[in-house]
Specification:
Protein name: HIT domain-containing protein
Helix content: 25-40%
Strand order of the largest sheet: 3-4-5-7-6
Shape: globular
GO molecular function: catalytic activity; nucleotide binding
Radius of gyration: 18 Å
Distance between the termini: 34 Å
Largest sheet: 5 strands, antiparallel
Strand content: 5-15%
CATH class of one domain: Alpha Beta
InterPro entries: AP-4-A_phosphorylase, FHIT, HIT-like, HIT-like_sf
Keywords: Nucleotide-binding
Number of helices: 6
Length: 201
């Protein structure tokens, strides 16, 4: 089933024009500048994100569309009155969550007091649930405000909650530019949703 293209940290790089995408993986030895050890994996299907600054139009915002979808399709873990929690489709680690207000606002200073309060409450609950389910050692928590700050979807405010383990950064991201994720997104969503406390009456 198709999933939403939610967030990828805004780290796309332009494609090099000297080699056809059909070439697949190329050697870095002939590139201009100082050669490095990295190979380049061509992904032409993602060119639209580069050409348009990775920013969808407001009417195509995935964070606006997600609440209208079933939880398992949108990877939603929990819903509040003013904000909701869902999995990042391109996670840094398993259990990488996003807390979003329902309103389409771009920066934290535009949030109402009620939205700020619930984003904070959902963040605290998410930390407790992830810690219970995943036994992680720590968290990275933060918001990227604006394209220049690396927001993958700058038009809709979202807070990252990234669980961290003592040895979650191994040789793969450094040598192979690859992140190993041991659980499928659907399984992670189900585990976190099942552990999420029921709303108080």
């Amino acid at each position: 089933m198709a999933r939403l293209g939610l967030d990828d940290y805004g780290d796309e790089q332009p494609m090099h024009p000297t080699v056809s995408p059909a070439a697949g993986v190329e050697s870095a030895a002939h590139l201009a500048g100082v050669p490095d050890e990295f190979q380049r994996l061509w992904t032409p299907h993602r060119l639209v994100y580069i050409q348009h600054g990775q920013q969808p139009d407001e009417h195509e915002c995935p964070f606006c569309h997600a609440p209208a979808m079933p939880d398992d399709d949108a990877l939603i873990v929990a819903r509040g009155k003013h904000a909701f929690v869902l999995l990042n489709l391109f996670p840094y680690n398993s259990g990488h969550l996003l807390v979003c207000p329902y309103r389409h606002i771009s920066t934290y200073d535009l949030a109402t007091p009620d939205e700020v309060a619930e984003i904070g409450e959902l963040t605290q609950t998410a930390m407790k649930v992830v810690r219970t389910v995943s036994r992680n050692d720590g968290f990275n928590i933060g918001m990227n405000q604006g394209v220049v700050a690396g927001a993958g979807i700058a038009g809709h405010l979202h807070q990252h909650i990234v669980p961290r383990w003592a040895q979650d950064a191994n040789f793969l991201p450094i040598i192979a530019k690859t992140k190993a994720l041991p659980q499928l997104l659907g399984d992670v969503r189900e585990a976190l949703a099942d552990a999420w406390p029921a709303p108080s009456a």
